[in-house]
Design a protein that fits this description.
Layout lengths: L14 H11 L4 H19 L2 H12 L4 H26 L5 E5 L1 H8 L5 E5 L6 H6 L7 E6 L4 H11 L7 E3 L5 H10 L3 E5 L9 E6 L2 E6 L1 H9 L2 E11 L2 E8 L8 H22 L13
Helix pairs in contact: 2-4, 3-4, 9-10
Length: 293
């Protein structure tokens, strides 16, 4: 987690720590580690990590909460984030969570067809849970992921994805991932994009989000409208200690409009859905950098 203008995008720790955490989670209830993180890890993170500033600004400046409530929710927000990180490693250790999917019929209908389609997600909740739950036997799901993640995390993801029909597309500086995206969609597969980080690209869409102007990457909306594809917003939100809700929402846009307007129309639909989920789960917003202009 970083509280800077730029996002680092890697999971804290090294391979040794990750291996031992997975081993520990094979025998210990996740709730034990939750409580440990609440009491010891999170207070230290709040002292040392600049993410406390951006989280506080989000609650106080963006959501308009009072200073004391914003400070408390900054702590709660970091506790929730610790939970989803622990849950990710618990999945690597073979644990399963109770997951209820709202709107599964939309995913199933598109997965049964011949055309490819797109998932849009953001860094709220725990989208990685969808990769182990929302699967299709007919279509490969291609999540576009940050290539700088720790090797140990990527290796565990690969091991998990071997059990499902998922193949990661790594974002690369030479833009080679664009050819992989094109191939996947041409072959009628599913591509999943993170839609709240531009990764330094100047091609962004400025959009009002929670009352302030924020920048969203243009790429996912451009790819969808270029091919006239169906698009789903997929948000995976933590409900209780061991349960999640996956919200699958179709994003409609007018495909008869000029393409520039289609992009704007689709961006409107996505940002409206994202805003709905953030308001519903305000402590599960995990963009620990200055997202708003």
């Amino acid at each position: 987690m970083e509280g800077d203008k730029e996002w680092i995008g890697t999971t804290y720790g090294n391979g040794w720590m990750h291996r031992h955490l997975i081993l520990l989670l094979r025998y210990i209830d996740v709730r034990v580690l939750y409580v440990f993180s609440y009491l010891f890890v999170i207070p230290v993170c709040l002292i040392l990590n600049a993410s406390r500033k951006t989280a506080y600004h989000y609650f106080h400046r963006i959501l308009g909460m009072g200073k004391c409530r914003s400070a408390w929710l900054t702590y709660v927000n970091h506790c929730r984030f610790a939970e989803v990180v622990i849950d990710k490693f618990a999945m690597f250790a073979g644990r399963r969570f109770k997951v209820e999917v709202v709107g599964l019929e939309h995913f199933n209908a598109l997965a049964a067809g011949n055309e490819g389609f797109i998932h849009l997600s953001s860094h709220i909740g725990n989208y990685e849970i969808a990769g182990y739950t929302l699967c299709s036997e007919k279509k490969t799901i291609n999540p576009v992921v940050y290539s700088g993640e720790k090797a140990s995390v990527m290796a565990n993801r690969n091991n998990m994805f071997l059990k499902t029909n998922i193949r990661m597309i790594l974002m690369r500086a030479d833009m080679g991932h664009l050819f992989e995206i094109d191939r996947a969609l041409s072959e009628g597969e599913i591509v999943s994009f993170p839609t709240d980080r531009s990764n330094g690209s100047s091609k962004v869409i400025e959009h009002t989000f929670l009352g302030r102007t924020a920048c969203f990457p243009q790429g996912p909306f451009s790819v969808a409208t270029m091919r006239g594809l169906n698009v789903l917003a997929v948000n995976v939100m933590k409900e209780r200690w061991t349960s999640y809700h996956i919200y699958v929402t179709p994003l409609d846009y007018d495909r008869s409009l000029p393409r520039k307007q289609q992009i704007a129309h689709l961006a409107d639909a996505y940002v409206n859905e994202l805003e709905l989920r953030v308001k519903q789960y305000p402590t599960q917003w995990y963009n620990f950098f200055e997202f708003w202009k």
